[in-house]
Design a protein that fits this description.
The complex is a heterodimer of chains A (121) and B (297). Chain A is mostly beta strands and 121 residues long. Helix content of chain A is 11%, strand content 42%. In chain A, the strands form three sheets. Chain A has a four-stranded mixed β-sheet, with no helix packed on it. In chain A, a hairpin with a 4-residue loop joins strand 5 and strand 6. The longest helix of chain A is centred in the first third of the chain and has 9 residues. Chain B has 297 residues and is α/β, with parallel strands linked by helices. Chain B is built from seven helices and twelve strands. The mean pLDDT of chain B is 93. Classes of the chains: A mainly beta (121), B alpha/beta (297).
């Protein structure tokens, strides 16, 4: 676990466990916040546009069932729980188009529940 | 031994000879276990009973019965048959889920060989933590021994987050502790235990922990499903072989933007679907895999 965390920190990325913020937001208050709504079986927005090296806070909500947000290329994920707001800080360390997907099986249609992160320089 | 040699001779003569995969670190080391007969088993996977999508498989109701007939018509009877998950296609209706599981069970009762092992896939089990599946097929993870090989079935689907979980990992550790370092070990799973392509959810969240537990054992081979195609990959000395589906094929990992089923080709019906026979040569820890179509061309 420690090795994994070091690896992610080295990549400029902090996982959900280390980056779920309290309600105050504290030092990250000035960072851009993008709210993502998960519902059966889609993310809104489906496309997220970011800049390399610029931190953002992704804020997840759902009114349906427990879902997951996973962006494997950045080694980050978060649970999305009805009635709660999950937050994930992401500092993209590369440019390109990358997949994100729901990684908690949530019903018939789960397998099509994905979107894209576009990172520009 | 005799039957295995006869079967392999037959496969070669019939032009069906399979591909031989050595398990792990065998490398000529003499197996300390008692001399054992070689044997073969059949793996079927991802039958998705209840699936409805005519452009993907217009014979969704007929493919499984055809596969059962094809297994029954094999020239040599396997020692056992294993289904590595997604027996049924998912439904959010618990009654319908049980109806599909019952229909699947009744169809596969048509297999002549009655030594059949079952495993769940996420389509069967993830929406109710395997409750309905267990009502029909019993425990979702287990181990058994057959002619010198230790088989372990791992459930990496009943948790909708695709975790094996602490409890099952502890059981796996305890089960493996009873095995010699050179034991012949075959693992069955539904999802890949390694990160094959997480962008398409082709992974197990804590699969690396299972692989870590397996690593001290020299001869480990994993047979799994989930990705609806044949795929072979090593993690260290552990070989992983995925099986074809019996409902629709999926594209190669990352070969296109979306993980969408490959559409039915009327010119080549049942293309990409099938099951496999695995000849286990216990002394050498080798597995010869022969892929069979649903229907002979």
């Amino acid at each position: 676990m420690r090795l994994e965390r070091r690896r992610l920190l080295a990549a400029g990325i902090v996982t959900a466990a280390g980056a779920v913020f309290g309600a105050s937001g504290l030092a990250q208050a000035k960072e851009r916040v993008i709210r993502v709504t998960a519902r059966k079986f889609a993310f809104l927005p489906r496309e997220i546009r970011l800049k390399k090296g610029v931190p953002v806070v992704l804020e997840f909500v759902t009114a349906d069932v427990v879902m997951g947000f996973n962006a494997p290329d950045f080694h980050v994920r978060a649970d999305i729980i009805p009635g709660k707001v999950s937050r994930l800080r992401l500092v993209p360390d590369k440019t390109g188009t990358f997949v994100f997907l729901c990684d908690i099986f949530c019903g018939d249609g789960h397998e099509g529940m994905s979107g894209q992160i576009h990172v520009v320089a | 031994m005799r039957q295995s040699i006869d079967r392999r001779d037959f496969l070669k003569l019939a032009g069906l000879g399979g591909v031989v995969f050595a398990s792990g670190l065998a490398g000529g080391a003499k197996f300390a276990g008692a001399a054992q007969d070689d044997f073969y088993f059949v793996q079927l996977s991802d039958t998705h009973w209840g699936f409805n999508g005519p452009v993907v498989n217009p014979d969704a109701g007929g493919t499984l019965p055809k596969a059962v007939a094809a297994v029954n018509s094999l020239e040599f009877e396997p020692d056992f048959i294993v289904f590595t998950g997604d027996l049924t296609h998912t439904t959010e209706d618990p009654k319908e889920r049980r109806r599909r599981l019952a229909e699947f069970r009744d169809i596969v009762k048509g297999l002549k060989n009655k030594n059949v092992r079952f495993m769940p896939g996420e389509h069967d089990a993830a929406l109710d933590n395997g409750q309905a599946w267990k009502e029909f097929f019993g425990p979702s993870f287990y181990s058994f021994d057959h002619k010198g090989v230790h088989f372990i079935a791992i459930d990496n689907v009943s948790d909708p987050a695709a975790r094996i979980g602490e409890q099952q990992l502890a059981w796996l550790k305890s089960d493996l502790a009873k095995q010699a370092a050179d034991a012949r070990i075959v693992v069955f799973a539904h999802r890949p235990l390694f990160d094959l392509y997480p962008q398409w959810d082709w992974a197990t969240r804590d699969g690396a922990q299972a692989i870590d537990l397996l690593m001290p054992h020299k001869n480990v081979t994993v047979f799994y499903g989930h990705i609806h195609q044949e795929h072979h990959q090593m993690t260290g000395h552990i070989a992983h072989h995925s099986a074809k589906s019996l409902i629709f094929p999926l594209p190669a990992p990352g070969s296109q933007p979306k993980r969408a089923p490959i559409l039915w080709d009327p010119a080549q019906p049942y293309r990409g679907l099938g099951f496999r026979g695995v000849d286990a040569e216990v002394q050498k820890a080798e597995y010869e895999i022969t892929e069979y179509p649903v229907r002979k061309a």
